[in-house]
Amino acid sequence: MNENYPLPNLIGKNDKGVSYFPMVNGLKMHFRCYKNQDPNFSKGDIAIFDSGFPFFSSAYGNVIELMSKKEVMSAMGIESACFFDRYGYGWSDLSPEPLGVESFVSMLKQSIDLIPFLKNKRFFYVAWSYGGLNAQMFYMKYPQLVKGILTIDSSFRNYIDPLFNSQLESQIQQLESVISLPNDMFKLICGQGMLSQDQGWFTNNSKLIFSSIEITQKIITNPNQNMLKALHQELSTLISSSQRLDELFNSSSIPNNPFGNLPMVVVSNSNDTESWVSRQHQLSKLSKNSFQFSIYSTHFIPIIKPEVVVVQLSNLILRSTLKIPFCN
To answer: In the chain, what are the helix, strand and coil shares in percent, each to the nearest 5?
Structure first.
């Protein structure tokens, strides 16, 4: 762990998580895992959480706090919940070059295999925003490991249009100019509120547990600028990753429903553009056994409405366990 980084106690002094740092191809990936603390709970399911960019495990602080309350994980049927940081984010090493989603999920799978209690275990993949691309790709490559998928206002296959493409180029150029700034100037920009939550910055007044706010602030302003560099890598491969996922879907045996009957819940923000809302509906069609839950909110559902994540994950696990199909 970087000696200048804070400890990954995402919910403060009462955090009971344990960190793991599996190394693949010379790169460490950080997993923060929370075991069910209920002495009366014997065996349950595993959930693995992936965040949107430019966020990492700390963005799930409110979800972790809620799940850590007495007997909540037991009620959900969860034995362990792990929150990982993609390369360059949080406590994970920065990749020397952009990976793209397909290469990333290969390394994610290898990393999971290096954690004894996760190896060869089937799990529920919870994915917010950009993390949804990873979840979809992971299932296409390793369907035998995924019990179900919960997406939260997720990115989708080949959704790039000319307008977004031009905006993406502009975002990359702006990011490059920010990365070139001296660290003291970058800290000043953050402190003055010139960096928004969309860009990864949480102010002290953000609706996130304060311990996670502090952690995020310290990591994003670290002189190594790994978080900004990781964001640059993911933005630069976003279009090609999305197109590659589309290719895999179209070449599957059932291109209209490439996930088959996989239990799937699609949580979406209805307070968005017509195009984005439509994509969420299309996403729910990946599986013939899916359910779409729309909520009038913002893109930051795990932060503003953590209870929605917990309830819909519980719904997904229960239906999967009892083999109750969703009415799609």
So the answer is: 45, 15, 40
